[in-house]
TrEMBL record:
Signal peptide: none annotated. SUPFAM superfamilies: Winged helix' DNA-binding domain. Transmembrane segments: none annotated. Belongs to the BlaI transcriptional regulatory family. GO terms for biological process: negative regulation of DNA-templated transcription. It comes from Streptomyces hainanensis. Keywords: DNA-binding, Transcription, Transcription regulation. This is BlaI/MecI/CopY family transcriptional regulator. One of its GO terms (molecular function) is DNA binding. InterPro entries: BlaI_family, WH-like_DNA-bd_sf, WH_DNA-bd_sf. Pfam families: Penicillinase_R (PF03965).
């Protein structure tokens, strides 16, 4: 590619053969002796593209946001679907490998199931959002050594309505016959 300075410019790593002050490291023109610094059009375009890409990457997803989006896509599917189908539903420029990583993490958390079909897998949601939240709560509780203290602390932070609902649910659970 010919840069605006008339020499060959393919980035800072390519030595520019134009004489008269072109810096091979930064693709800048220092000027013969006037101290003026000027970047070639290729370098300016590359930097502009980096800024634009940086703006797109600047918004980071919240923790678990991508997993929630993948689960939502799986919930809307009537049958088990491929990772490519999930990728298409999520839109944007999300890479296939990213979708596969999220699906694998969800599989490890038992939030999704997969079945082999030929050389690939079909994926489906194993539980709804409420069941997944309950699973996360259970895992946090399982990691603690003093379960009673954790549960007591949790119960004391509940609103009166939530406490009432919890009491109702516990009463219903004790009434149900055990298998």
């Amino acid at each position: 590619m010919v840069g605006a300075h008339g020499g060959w410019c393919q980035g800072p790593e390519i030595y520019n053969t134009v004489e008269g002050g072109w810096n091979a490291v930064s693709c800048q023109y220092d000027g013969p002796r006037d101290g003026r610094v000027e970047e070639c059009a290729d370098t300016r375009a590359r930097k502009a593209a980096d800024v634009t890409a940086g703006d797109a990457r600047a918004r980071r997803r919240g923790q678990g946001e991508l997993e929630a989006q993948v689960l939502a896509a799986l919930h809307e599917a009537a049958v088990p679907v491929s990772a490519a189908w999930v990728q298409e539903r999520l839109g944007g420029d999300l890479a296939y490998t990213t979708v596969m990583t999220i699906l694998s993490r969800l599989l490890a958390k038992q939030a999704v199931t997969r079945q082999r079909v030929g050389r690939s897998f079909l994926w489906s949601a194993a539980a709804d959002e409420a069941a997944l939240a309950a699973l996360r709560m259970r895992r946090v509780l399982d990691r603690e050594t003093d379960r009673e203290a954790v549960l007591a602390s949790f119960v004391t932070t509940l609103s009166p309505d939530d406490e009432r609902l919890l009491r109702l649910l516990l009463a219903q659970a004790t009434e149900e016959p055990e298998d």
